[in-house]
Amino acid sequence: MIDAVLSILFPETCPVCLKKSQDHATAPICNECWKTIVPYTGPMCQRCGRPLVSDSATICGGCLEAEPAFEYARSFGLYDGVLRKAINHLKYYGTRRLAGPLADMMIRMPLPQADAVVPVPLHRARLRHREFNQSALVSRQLAGHLKAELIINCLTKIRDTAPQVGLRYRERIKNVRNAFRVEDGGKIAGKKIILVDDVVTTGSTIRECAKILKKAGASHVYAVSLAHGVSD
Length: 232
What we know:
- By secondary structure, the chain is an alpha/beta fold.
- The protein contains nine helices and seven strands.
């Protein structure tokens, strides 16, 4: 009944199929298009979760060259199609209600036992402009499901880096180097941490965050994200 009333008061057109969206929880994306979002089940690097072209390889070249500080990283799906539109509507258009159904996808993933959930932070200037951190919204739902502590203000971004979009692999690594800091290591010391990001492409951001968390005393770091992009 609530969906019916909201769809009348605030009608929205699905950006995918251009039909009327009937489910306010996932609007503007309609329920039929939302159901087409599926998890990625293809070959991937067993360490960083990067999609691979063949099952014959289990570790990608990046992880062989430089071992990441996290135990492993996993993404729910690929950053394309309806999932990409959903993440972009949350991230760039401020459709915060999508954080719940997107978090539900992450909850469906095989998740490790953890003491705390930590979102990848935004720099204060970016947070002031956007008014919210999309990874923190998803993390709140995830922490509630896992009955784990949600730690928001411990891992901080101290340098306002250029957007990672459009940068090549080496440029992304350089862009985020020394961009993060742990403010209070006592909050994470000895804890198993789930690090949450919305989209992972080369993994340079979660690599840097995991390295900082481990240096600050975290015993284990697992990285999870909604989607994995295709790197250059």
